[in-house]
Structures are given as C-alpha cells and as structure tokens.
Design goal:
Blueprint (H helix, E strand, L loop, with lengths): L4 E2 L5 E2 L1 H24 L19 H4 L7 H32 L5 H13 L2 H14 L6 H25 L4 H8 L4 H29 L3 H6 L6 H8 L7 H49 L5
Antiparallel strand pairs: 1-2
Helix pairs in contact: 1-11, 3-6, 3-8, 3-10, 4-6, 6-8, 7-8, 7-11, 8-11
Length: 294
Amino acid sequence: MASLTRTRDGRTRSPWLSGFYWLVIFITFVPIVVMVLYSFNNAPTSRITFVWAGFTTYWYRNLTQVDGLSHAFVTSLEVAVISSVVSIVIGTPLSMALGRYRFWGKGFLSSMVFADIAAPAIVVGAASLSFFLSINLDTGLLTILIAHIAFNVAYVVVVVRARLSGMDSAIEDAARDLGAGPLTTFTRVTLPLLWPALLAAGLLAFAMSIDDYVITSFVAGSTVTFPLFVYGAAKVGLPPQVLCFGTIIFFVGLLLALANGVLNRRHLIARAATEDDAIAVIQQREVEVAPVRV
C-alpha cells in the first residue's frame, strides 16, 4: 500500500486518491472528446459512424439540414432559458425565507425541496402527468415548462441558500444603519452579493432542463425537444448534426462556467473590501453611541 506523502505546504497527498481522481476525469471527458472529434468526421453517409474518414466542417455548415432537429433544439433552448429565469425568480425569495426566517411549516418545506431533488425522475414525470390530466390541461410546451420549473426551483433554492449561509449579515445591517430601506438594501447590497450564486444556480437549472428526457417524455405531448428528438432518431441512426449541437452546447456551457469563475473571483475580492468598510462603519457607530464614562 502506498504511503501518504506530505507537500511543502504541509498537506498530505495520497497516490491512490490522485489516481482515482484522474480516472474519474478520464471517464468523464472521454465521451465529450469523442463527441467533439467525430462532429468533424467526414462520414460517407448522413448517419453517425465511428470510422474516421477525414476532417470536415460540412455538418456544422449544414446544421439545419435534418428536418425537425433545429426546431427541437430551439424548443429546448426556449424551455431551458424560461424555466431557469422563472426558477430563479421563485427560488431566490424562497431560499431567503428558508435561510433567514422562522415560520410555520419551514421544516416541511425544506424537506419537500430536498425530496424534489432526491425523487427519481420517472416518479416526478408520472406524478406531473397525473396532475395535468386531473386538471384537464393538455400536454405540450406549457406543461414542459411547468414541470421543468418545478424541479429547477429545488436546485436554485439549494445553491442560493448555501450562499446565504456564508454571507455576513453585518453588511446589510450597515446599509440599514446608513439609511437604506429594505428594497434599497436588497437591490444594492444583498442582490450583488448573491449574484455569483444566482448565476451558478441559473447555469445548473439550464443544464438540468436542456438535457432532461425522462420527465419531459411524460408531459411533452406532441412537442419535441432536443433529447426527445435524439432518442427517436437513435432508432434509425443519428445524424452527425446531433454531435454538432452537443458540441456547441458543451462549449457554450464551458465558456459560461469559466466566466462565472472569473466573476466570482473578482466578487470575492470586492466583497472582502466591502466587508472591511462595513465593519469600520459599524465600529464607528458603536463608538458614537457608547455612553461616556466618568
């Protein structure tokens, strides 16, 4: 058994743990690399083949060549964007209520949020379909949106609530001491501090929505999203444009994640400076209101 080694900064390092880490990274990224690589394969037919026939950008230049694929992709984008925005609008005040206030039913509501995440997708899909049928709501784009918002809200609540738990309320107290009202404090102080978490929650909700198949298949009706199209086309052979769309989604998501990391890093630096200023204001106020001792 390999022994633990100690680095210069005093941390311990295990070769087994490092090997396991790189194994997970390898297993995770190999399918992505294959997808990106074969999206440029000069396949002799309009179906995906893993026999390399040369490099080409033909499939990217003919993304709309396959009937129904572009429309399904646009539908998925619409659902993902709308459900992400609505989930943030609903999930942000809900996470603030759960994280900062006490009220009747708080424990039950918290349990429901985590149950929504832990529940199997097939159960959520079947339950959603039963609900829509019980209220005589025809399945289609609207029911897809409702179902996606329902499971995305839980992810937004978890991410934003985690950010709230690490926020220093002294900054908001300082804003109120300086005369800011509740709305001003929220828009000028709380919301900027929550921005990295909101962006991360939005990206997570977008990713969960755009590739969802199981729940969508229950409530889609005649509406076809990108995952539903891919599943249906796989029975007769996938067109290479599917790999092109997947590559585009991956790189756009990667760029957004990198941008979020840069913004978060800058935000942490600005937050540290803001916290120092707020603490200085609070200390000054305490000195001003302190009783004079004789």
